[in-house]
């Protein structure tokens, strides 16, 4: 079976090159990039679209094991495919926690059976995410965990954290950090500022993030381990990473589409649907996150796709859980808010969604050249569409972005040469 993706703008983000040509796929591989004529059994017209290496999202929550009502590996993987994402890295805050090799193996086995995209997993730093007892990191790495994180919280005990950083350095794997000091977050549900005042919430101060960013940078510096900082949201946090990079610390930073595009004002209209951790911040913070993406301080765009049930999200600002979905809107948000505004080149945007996140997590690098595995995303940068949550593949059919108009969408997705999503026909199986 030969498939040609014809006449698209083929993007090699690292070479900063884009060429209008064809990509020929045979079985699981790319066999030619160039004018291939009429040799294929199946021809997909990509005129006016970017043809990019398959997108890699290193921050998702698929909730399996434990919370299938929120998401499963099967449903999460379909949502990824519909968002143009061909590889994901799952967070360990499932039930049970991914804190033993058996759970790593369960996730990877289930993914192999049910996941239509490539699913990798993290493991936790502490048992049960309780912050008290370190996991057996070498055994978890051996089972296939790509990094260690207690995402959802920060490890507050510096003795445990120091040990984890030392193990990470020995294992050659990064520590991945959710940066929020619990003691400063307290009962806050949203950013501390004008909006929290208006709504009578105590608010989560920027300092909660900055403190842990600064601390974890020091741990990385002290131990030589690599550190990846998740969902950076504050101007202060971005600046700390910028300074750390300048003095050679091995740190990378991540921005989510929601934190580079919307502010805490969204809570005024969307309520708990817009409640997320870390919270949506101010315009000055959004601008700082964008500046961080522009100057390379922030290396990665990742969604932090965090599905919860509708009922849970209806419990009001205080009681609803933190988090909302992002896989199916990530490309649209990135093109609408970064590429079409001229803030980020298409090369930089694609790089931060493909090779750079793959490098950080030690995954195979998605590439578009003959011989490469055919993980490919086709993006129509000019397709205008409205976010319709009823059409989501994720189990969480709600989002604070519902009804928003976006420009740019993944329209075809290939994993290992298999055509798994088309904008016209949906998920293909
Ligand atoms: N982002 C969130 O608001 N929630 C995440 C946890 C996390 O990423 O911190 C979740 O698991 O629901
Ligand atoms: Zn987190
Ligand atoms: Zn997360």
From TrEMBL:
<keyword id="KW-0862">Zinc</keyword>
<feature type="binding site">
    <location>
        <position position="304"/>
    </location>
    <ligand>
        <name>Zn(2+) 1</name>
    </ligand>
</feature>
<dbReference type="InterPro" id="IPR011059">
    <property type="entry name" value="Metal-dep_hydrolase_composite"/>
</dbReference>
<feature type="binding site">
    <location>
        <position position="231"/>
    </location>
    <ligand>
        <name>Zn(2+) 2</name>
    </ligand>
</feature>
<keyword id="KW-0665">Pyrimidine biosynthesis</keyword>
<feature type="binding site">
    <location>
        <begin position="61"/>
        <end position="63"/>
    </location>
    <ligand>
        <name>substrate</name>
    </ligand>
</feature>
<keyword id="KW-0378">Hydrolase</keyword>
<dbReference type="InterPro" id="IPR004722">
    <property type="entry name" value="DHOase"/>
</dbReference>
<feature type="binding site">
    <location>
        <position position="277"/>
    </location>
    <ligand>
        <name>substrate</name>
    </ligand>
</feature>
<feature type="active site">
    <location>
        <position position="304"/>
    </location>
</feature>
<feature type="binding site">
    <location>
        <position position="151"/>
    </location>
    <ligand>
        <name>Zn(2+) 1</name>
    </ligand>
</feature>
<feature type="domain" description="Dihydroorotase catalytic">
    <location>
        <begin position="51"/>
        <end position="234"/>
    </location>
</feature>
<feature type="binding site">
    <location>
        <position position="93"/>
    </location>
    <ligand>
        <name>substrate</name>
    </ligand>
</feature>
<dbReference type="InterPro" id="IPR032466">
    <property type="entry name" value="Metal_Hydrolase"/>
</dbReference>
<feature type="binding site">
    <location>
        <position position="151"/>
    </location>
    <ligand>
        <name>Zn(2+) 2</name>
    </ligand>
</feature>
<comment type="pathway">
    <text>Pyrimidine metabolism; UMP biosynthesis via de novo pathway; (S)-dihydroorotate from bicarbonate: step 3/3.</text>
</comment>
<dbReference type="InterPro" id="IPR002195">
    <property type="entry name" value="Dihydroorotase_CS"/>
</dbReference>
<feature type="binding site">
    <location>
        <begin position="322"/>
        <end position="323"/>
    </location>
    <ligand>
        <name>substrate</name>
    </ligand>
</feature>
<feature type="binding site">
    <location>
        <position position="178"/>
    </location>
    <ligand>
        <name>Zn(2+) 2</name>
    </ligand>
</feature>
<feature type="binding site">
    <location>
        <position position="59"/>
    </location>
    <ligand>
        <name>Zn(2+) 1</name>
    </ligand>
</feature>
<dbReference type="InterPro" id="IPR050138">
    <property type="entry name" value="DHOase/Allantoinase_Hydrolase"/>
</dbReference>
<comment type="similarity">
    <text>Belongs to the metallo-dependent hydrolases superfamily. DHOase family. Class I DHOase subfamily.</text>
</comment>
<dbReference type="Pfam" id="PF12890">
    <property type="entry name" value="DHOase"/>
</dbReference>
<protein>
    <recommendedName>
        <fullName>Dihydroorotase</fullName>
        <ecNumber>3.5.2.3</ecNumber>
    </recommendedName>
</protein>
<feature type="binding site">
    <location>
        <position position="308"/>
    </location>
    <ligand>
        <name>substrate</name>
    </ligand>
</feature>
<keyword id="KW-0479">Metal-binding</keyword>
<comment type="function">
    <text>Catalyzes the reversible cyclization of carbamoyl aspartate to dihydroorotate.</text>
</comment>
<dbReference type="InterPro" id="IPR024403">
    <property type="entry name" value="DHOase_cat"/>
</dbReference>
<feature type="binding site">
    <location>
        <position position="61"/>
    </location>
    <ligand>
        <name>Zn(2+) 1</name>
    </ligand>
</feature>
């Amino acid at each position: 079976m030969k498939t040609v993706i014809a006449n698209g703008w083929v993007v090699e983000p690292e070479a900063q090159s884009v060429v209008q040509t064809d990509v020929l796929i045979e079985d699981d591989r790319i066999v030619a990039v160039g004018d291939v004529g009429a040799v294929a059994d199946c021809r997909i017209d990509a005129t006016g679209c970017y043809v990019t290496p398959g997108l890699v999202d290193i921050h998702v929550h698929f909730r399996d094991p434990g919370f299938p009502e929120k998401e499963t590996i099967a449903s999460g993987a379909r949502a990824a495919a519909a968002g143009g994402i061909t590889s994901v890295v799952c967070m360990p805050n499932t039930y049970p926690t991914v804190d033993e090799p058996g759970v790593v193996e369960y996730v990877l086995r289930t993914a192999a059976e049910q996941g239509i995209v490539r699913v990798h997993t993290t493991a936790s730093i502490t048992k049960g995410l309780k912050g008290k007892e370190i996991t057996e990191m070498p055994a978890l790495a051996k089972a296939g965990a790509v990094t260690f994180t207690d995402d959802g919280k920060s490890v507050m005990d510096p003795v445990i954290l120091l040990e984890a950083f030392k193990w990470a350095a020995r294992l050659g794997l990064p520590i991945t950090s959710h940066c929020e000091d619990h003691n400063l977050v307290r009962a806050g549900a949203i950013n501390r500022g004008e909006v929290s005042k208006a709504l009578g919430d105590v608010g989560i101060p920027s300092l909660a993030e900055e403190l842990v960013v600064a601390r974890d940078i020091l741990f990385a510096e002290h131990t030589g381990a690599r550190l990846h900082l998740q969902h950076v949201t504050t101007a202060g946090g971005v600046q700390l990473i910028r300074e750390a990079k300048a003095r050679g610390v091995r740190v990378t930073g991540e921005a989510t589409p929601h934190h580079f595009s919307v502010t805490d004002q969204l809570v005024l209209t969307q309520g708990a649907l817009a409640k997320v951790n870390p919270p949506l911040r101010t315009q000055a913070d959004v601008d700082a996150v964008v500046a961080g993406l522009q100057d390379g301080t922030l290396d990665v765009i990742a969604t932090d796709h965090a599905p919860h049930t509708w009922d849970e999200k209806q419990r009001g600002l205080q009681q609803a859980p933190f988090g909302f979905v992002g896989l199916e809107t990530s490309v649209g948000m990135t093109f609408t808010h970064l590429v079409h505004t001229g803030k980020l080149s298409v090369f930089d945007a694609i790089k931060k969604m493909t090779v750079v996140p793959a490098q950080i997590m030690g995954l195979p690098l998605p590439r578009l050249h003959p011989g490469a595995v055919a993980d490919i995303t086709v993006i129509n940068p000019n397709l205008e569409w409205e976010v319709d949550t009823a059409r989501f593949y994720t189990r969480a059919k709600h989002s604070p972005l519902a009804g928003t108009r976006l420009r740019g969408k993944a329209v075809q997705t290939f994993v290992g040469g298999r055509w798994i999503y088309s904008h016209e026909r949906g998920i293909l199986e």
